[in-house]
Amino acid sequence: MSNRTHRGAGFRTTIAALITVPFIVPFVFLISTAVRERSDYVSSPGGLPKSFTLDHIVEAWQEADLGRALVNTLIMCVVACLVCGTTSLAGGYFFRVARQRWTGPLRLLLGAGYAIPMVAWLIPVFVIAAQAGWTGNLFVAGVISGVSSLPFGFYFVHTFLQQSLSDEVIEATTLDGAGVFRAFLYIGIPMAMPALAAVLALTFVWSFGDLLIASTLLQSNTDSYTLTLAATTLTTREDINLQGQAAAALVSLLPTLIVFAVAQKALKQGFGGGSEK
Amino acid sequence: MTATADTAPAKRVRKQKPSRVQAGLGGGRPALVLLIPVIVLEAAILFAPLLYIAYRSFFNWQPGGVSEFNGFDNYVELFSDPAFWQVVGNQFFYLLGLPLWVIAPLLVAFMLRERVKASGFFRSVYFLPAVMSPAVVALVFRALLSVDGPVNALLRTVGLGELARPWLSDEAMVKPVIILLVLWAGFGTGVLIFSSALSAIPKHLFEAARLDGVGFWGEFWHIAVPSIRNAVVLWMIFQVISIFLFMFSWVYVLTRGGPGLSSATMDFAIYQEFMRFGFFGTAAAQSVVLVLLILACAGIGALVIRLLGRDRAGKKVSA
Amino acid sequence: MKTSRSRLLSGAAALAAATLALTGCSGGGDAATTEKLTFAEVPKEDTTLKVWTFLPDNYENGNEAYEDIIAAFNEQYPQVEVELTTMPYGTYWDQLRNSGVSRSGPDVVTMYGGAQAYSYRNSLFPLQDAIDPAIEGDLRYLEDNYSSDGNLYILPTGAYGYALLVNQDLFASAGVDPQTLATWDGMIGACQALDAKGILPFATGWQDGILMETLMYMITSQQMDADTLVKWTQGELKLDDPLFGEAVDRILEMNEAGCFGGEEGLGRAMYDDAFNQYYAGDAAMFTTGGLATAETGYSDQPSTTVMPLPQVPESKYESLIDAGAEAGWSVTKWTKSPEAANAFVNFMGGAEAQQILWDVANVVPNNNAVEATPKTPMQEVFVPLIVNDENHTGFSSYPLEVLAVIERNAGPLISGKLSRDEFLEQAIRAFDKSA
Q1: How far is B260 from chain C, CA to nearest CA, in Å?
Q2: What dihedral do alpha carbons B35, B36, B39, B45 form, nearest 10°?
Q3: Max intra-chain CA distance, chain B
Q4: How far apart are CA C435 and CA C424, in angstroms?
Q5: Which residue among B34, B150, B230 sits closest to A184, beta carbon to beta carbon?
Q6: Rounded (to 5) percent helix, strand, coil in chain A
Q7: Which of B93, B42, B67 has its CA nearest to residue B284?
Q8: What average pLDDT score do residues C235-249 get?
Q9: Could you tell me which of A99, A102, A165, A93 has the C-alpha nearest to residue B10?
């Protein structure tokens, strides 16, 4: 390594570290809000904490039944990821290899599905789900949550493959006599891994943070509450209970961070794969 | 310039040899099996409801009551409401943040590519906002940005006291502040997406450029950005759509659209009409207008990008 | 490829058509007339009622109280099983919208009267002919809760009353006697005196506009005599009546006297911040509608007492405070057991249920047959204010669109960015739109 790269490394790391400040400060603020005594928080919500208590976290965990809510959320997120991941992969690969005159417009149309406001499509979907007796069902909510990310997901996979998967490679495999599914399995999926990791990470996080779908489809059944929905039970008409909310947020932060760390690893493998070629 | 020469062919292949590609890559009818899930799921869950809402936008829609057909009345009422136009104006003001939302994560993703220790850790930290629910984010920022809050206190301590403001309740400041908050919220996602896209660029391109003596900015502008143009455009469209569709929770918890209507967005307005007031017909009409507006914006944006891209490519070839 | 393309498209079209058909027949279009409900005997067959409410979480021991009530209800109606779901308040009203669109969900819901109920009118049975004659005479606030179409969609239960929490220590440290709050001018003077001593008179948050709304209710209820209130609930009194402008002027007068402090209040929200401001002892007064807030205020600031807002000079009363039903209960139109649902609603209004709520959860009753003996110092001062015979409220008749405009323009009005006339004009425009 040359001198220049060394200096560059230190410089870049410093910048990257500086950028973390606006992300860490609110986070620290959140933690401090969750672990302060009520009187301390009430007298100066924006000030430095002068006390420490785990009461809010314990209370939030018990009152809002966050343990069960965590399991529910994970079920919903996994279903959403399965739905969005598999269909995005298949659809993205299809649009990479299929080049009929109608595929371009169809791709745009399906991508435009992302532009439909959730308030507009969710209500009719809810009506049908209610008629079919599908409300309060985590699986149904997961599918719908997955589909809400699908237009973005398949388009992203397509965009990625457009760049990483060359026509020559596809041609070579098809000339080998491999069928479209073999090509998809052995070329398409491995090549799309970094994109898939990104799509899965985003789908997971979006489903995890969703309140609108959960409150619409799951609210009639308290046993199916997700974390975001359970956290709303801490707020009543008379009391917003911000400290309880902060505590619930802390509890729900951990699993997402773990998932994200795993996704990072998958991304890294993607980086490795990219450099070999 | 080797870089542009290297990336350009991929595009040309597509444009110049469609017939061969068509014959070779289509995969035939069986390939449609890969597409069917996307079509079925989107049609059932996204498009059919939209058609239904569009149909209902021509009614005085009263679920459970008598819904009378009223033609374009809902639209006329919408367009004659000054509040509607103010909200549309806000919507376009927010779009001014677009260059920031695109370039900042792009630059950082590029920087994190190499020669940064623990880049994975940094990416994780930038991603923190994505895992915080809007209600919690609002709690944090309303406290941080309040008149007597830490941000203003900090400004006063460093002698910039006259910059201190009621950030979220000052009509002039609220929109720029929300633009920065949107940057904060989406930054990590942008870095993630761009990192993923950058990982597909062959390393030898950068190595060759470096041998030619190309610096950081040269690599960024002439290799990285053109190579992942598709991802950049996708992210732009994604941000435009987000600004039209996913501002609701932010606006709702941070400002409730205020002061006055100065920070309200269309999705917030639709939510109010539908959920709070029960004006189903006008909410349906507003949803349709919103979809059309997004499509128009995305279309115009794509056109501009294409024209700009062509311009740049043209210049390079001549140089 | 052409064939598959058209096949695909027709497939999508078929799906779309199916969706349309489904939602079309369920989601309205069919003329559901406003059938009336009457108080009738509950059939002997077993039935289940789904009840949605956000109320139990509002009170300490709220859940226990509701369990007791359901047990008492079942003694009278053993054939009716009650499935009560406590819903989070934050998403409650959206959930009712969804239920209304899908014509499915609960049989009985907690609901506010007047304009709120009106906006859900396609989902709710009118109840004016369905009230148990045995309790009707004892119930307060029936009239306040009629909607502008002349229907009563809720059976009101419980009572709130807006009054002032007063931190007597802060008054003492400013050398102001809290008794000056007995008159309007006295209160204005107290604001000036407290402000001059650097004490914030009122805990204030304008950002969500709810304080503005609250003050509007508190003042306009004083200005409306019984006849005017009836006109207001029936939609005959319009928002362009001078009394609303006078109420705004009174609020601006308070603002000028320094009642709300400086611009800090513009960035605060009432529920998130202003409550805490009072609890922390940073403000001398606060507007509140419920006992629970008063109890918390008292435990944090032991010199707290409760006093009425003084009558504005335009008041038609001696000692009225803005008080009305805490909430109410409604029967949904899609219920399979309207008689059982109505029986439950009437049971909630009855003396037995309201007595349990008072005894177990400290909910002030609106049924005159209930013995509500105060048990705590706060109850001793607050309850008599709430049960005052003069009280009424025009609160529930403010159309939701008007409230939205008042809320969002509160900050600009107080900061002087929006003129009083423009503020009123925008509210009137919203009022006309809602009519």
Answers
A1: 5
A2: -130
A3: 75
A4: 17
A5: B34
A6: 80, 0, 20
A7: B67
A8: 96
A9: A165
Among A253, A243, A226, A257, smallest CA distance to A65 is for A226
Per the CB < 8 A criterion, the answer to whether B57 and B75 are in contact is yes
Distance CA B133, CA B174 (A): 20
Q: Distance from C139 to chain B by nearest Cα, in Å?
A: 29
Q: Which residue has the tokens 């449609």?
A: B32
CB contact under 8 A, A237 and C272: no
Residues 263 to 302 of B: which have CB under 8 A from any A CB?
267, 270-271, 274-275, 283-284, 287, 290-291, 294-295, 298
Residue A39's alpha-carbon distances to A152, A235, B225, C173, C264, in angstroms, are: 46, 18, 52, 22, 21
From CA B197, how far away is CA B226, in angstroms rounded?
Answer: 12
CB distance C106 to C99 below 8 Å: yes
Alpha carbons within 13 A on the beta-carbon side of B49: 26
CB C393 within 8 A of CB C221: yes
CB contact under 8 A, C16 and B51: yes
| Residue A14 forms contact with B (CB below 8 Å) | no
Minimal Cα–Cα distance from A250 to chain B, Å? 9
Q: What residue in C sits closest to B168 (Cα-Cα)?
A: C267
pLDDT tens-place string over residues B91-146: 999 999 999 999 999 999 999 887 777 888 888 889 888 777 776 787 788 888 88
If DSSP codes are grouped into helix, strand and coil, which group holds residue A48?
A: coil
At residue A140, what is the residue type? Answer: V
Enclosing H/E stretch for C228: helix C226-233
The tokens describing C166, both together, are 């007063």
Please write the tens of the pLDDT for every residue from C325-352.
999 999 999 999 999 999 999 999 999 9
Q: Is it true that the peptide bond before B259 is cis, omega within 30 degrees of 0?
A: yes
Q: pLDDT per residue over B236-284, tens digit each?
A: 888 888 888 888 878 887 888 888 899 999 988 998 888 888 899 999 9
Instruction: Work out the minimum CA distance from A44 to partner chain B, whole angstroms.
Output: 9
Tokens (6 digits) for B68: 């009378």
**Cα B222 from Cα C283, distance rounded (Å):** 61
Tokens of C136: 């009707």
Distances (CA, A) of A50 to A42, A244, B150: 12, 18, 16
Containing H/E element for C85?
Answer: strand C80-86
If DSSP codes are grouped into helix, strand and coil, which group holds residue A249? helix
| Cβ-based contacts of C404 with chain B (< 8 Å) | 272, 276-277
3-class SS string, chain B: CHHHHHHHHHHHHHHHCHHHHHHHHCCCHHHHHHHHHHHHHHHHHHHHHHHHHHHHCCEECCCCCCCEECCCHHHHHHHCCHHHHHHHHHHHHHHCCHHHHHHHHHHHHHHHCCCCCCHHHHHHHHCHHHHCCHHHHHHHHHHHCCCCCHHHHHHHHCCCHHHCCCCCCCCCCHHHHHHHHHHHHHHHHHHHHHHHHHCCCCHHHHHHHHHCCCCHHHHHHHHHHHHCHHHHHHHHHHHHHHHHHCCHHHHHHHCCCCCCCCCCCHHHHHHHHHHHHCCHHHHHHHHHHHHHHHHHHHHHHHHHHHHHHHHHHHHHHHC
pTM of the model: 0.86
Nearest to A13 among B53, B116, B129 (CB): B116
Cross-chain CB nearest to A219 (options C91, C292, C293): C91
ipTM confidence: 0.87
| Residue whose token pair is 């079509």 | B39
Residues of B whose CB is below 8 A from C103:
63-64
Burial A182-194 (b: 16+ CB within 10 A, else e): ebbeebbeebbbb
pLDDT score for A273: 40
Q: How many CB atoms lie within 10 A of CB A74?
A: 18
Structure tokens at A211: 């309140």
